[in-house]
Amino acid sequence: MKRIDEPDASLAFRIKVNFAPAVSEFGRPARTGAEVHELSRMPLSHVALGDLSTSCKGGCDERALRYGVLIAAGRLGAPDVVDIRCSQGAHRSSCVGTLAAPERDE
């Protein structure tokens, strides 16, 4: 079932994704965006994997950029995204969040 806040598929061609890894290696299976949790703070049990950003020229909706961060995080296998921050400019909109995962699998 499609979530009400999922971006329109046509935005996929306008949204650019960038990832700046903070670890040299991370291997987890991909997951859907709906399986990625958005957290306001980094849990003590987690490690930061890197920062992932989405951006769009010419005014994409913030919800689409925010959900784009979650979708891309899932593709990379990250279970959580911490502190997603968004900004709107005259010519470019963007969101950035820190990918995180438990330091140890239990």
Question: Can you characterise this structure?
Answer:
By secondary structure, this protein is mainly beta. Helices cover 14% and strands 40% of the residues. A five-stranded mixed β-sheet has the order 1-3-5-4-2, with helices on one face. The longest helix is centred in the middle third of the chain and has 15 residues. It is elongated and about 40 Å long. The N and C termini lie far apart (30 Å).
| Strand line-up of the largest beta sheet | 1-3-5-4-2
Number of strands: 5
Strand content: 35-45%
Distance from N terminus to C terminus (CA atoms, Å) equals 30 Å
Q: What is the domain total for the residues?
A: 1
Outline: elongated
Tell me the layout of helices and strands.
Blueprint: E1 15-21, E2 37-39, E3 46-57, H1 62-76, E4 80-88, E5 92-102
List descriptors.
Dodecin subunit-like, mainly beta, 40% strand, 106 residues, five-stranded mixed β-sheet
